[in-house]
Design a protein that fits this description.
This protein is of the alpha+beta class and about 240 residues long. About 60% of the residues lie in helices and about 10% in strands. The longest helix is centred in the last third of the chain and has 36 residues, at about 195-230.
């Protein structure tokens, strides 16, 4: 019986772009594994405290969005569509204001909902808090809707005031927000009580971040080189 190759019934074709992307992803995974391992140890010192801090940081971000309102349309839409959405947002925001007390209630309710997800949601390892993602694509996800329902904020208000294509991710030791898939900002990062342990982590974290940056730069170079050779964008086999 003929033995099949791992990725099909023949040898895999050389693909510099795919290989460079694989190395970039692998470098990112090494950094993420290092962070998760360290912060799971840090949070083990006082799991309840860190859970509360992370839930509060995530809830505050979304509440602040309701205070500000008027977020621009996603950049991947055509210019005329973006302009139409922005005009509608500006007009509707004046017609559907949200009471400050409701926003405060929303923040409190969302923090409790997030905390419950971290503690009581399904997890591969019940010894640690769950990883939670709160997503506003073009519609708010269930966690945001639940908090709005509990605080008297309507769905149209929620959809109007929250920024499109935004993800808040709550992981061991940190909370980060990503906008439109690329712009990532940390909202919270835990710190070990042992300064020597924290310093050791930061040195290794810096090394892994630099490694990931070099892998990303190499991937971009390979993409640019192939685009120049083929006269078009890079294609993965």
């Amino acid at each position: 019986m003929k033995k099949l190759e791992r990725f099909g019934d023949g040898p895999r074709k050389p693909d510099p772009v795919r290989d460079a992307m694989y190395e970039w992803n692998l470098a990112g995974q090494r950094k993420r594994f290092h962070e998760d391992k360290f912060y799971r140890g840090v949070e083990g010192e006082d799991q309840e405290k860190f859970n509360q801090e992370k839930a509060s940081a995530a809830a505050k971000f979304w509440a602040d969005c309701l205070y500000k309102g008027g977020h621009p349309a996603p950049s991947d839409l055509p210019a005329d569509v973006r302009a139409g959405i922005d005009r509608h947002t500006d007009i509707a925001a004046t017609e559907m204001p949200i009471d400050v007390n409701k926003i405060r209630a929303f923040e409190s309710a969302l923090a409790e909902i997030i905390l419950d997800q971290m503690v009581n949601g399904e997890s591969d390892d019940p010894s640690f808090a769950n990883i939670v993602k709160i997503i506003m694509d073009y519609e708010p996800d269930d966690l945001l809707i639940q908090a709005a329902d509990q605080s008297g904020i309507s769905f149209p208000q929620l959809r109007l005031y929250l920024p499109f294509k935004t993800i808040v991710e709550i992981r061991p030791g940190m909370v980060a927000v990503t906008r439109e898939g690329t712009n990532r900002t940390e909202l919270y990062r835990a710190t070990a009580s042992n300064p020597d342990l924290q310093a050791e982590f930061e040195r290794e974290d810096t090394r892994l971040r630099e490694e990931a940056s070099k892998s990303e730069a190499h991937f971009n170079e390979v993409c640019a080189e192939q685009e120049g050779q083929e006269g078009g964008g890079p294609r993965l086999s």
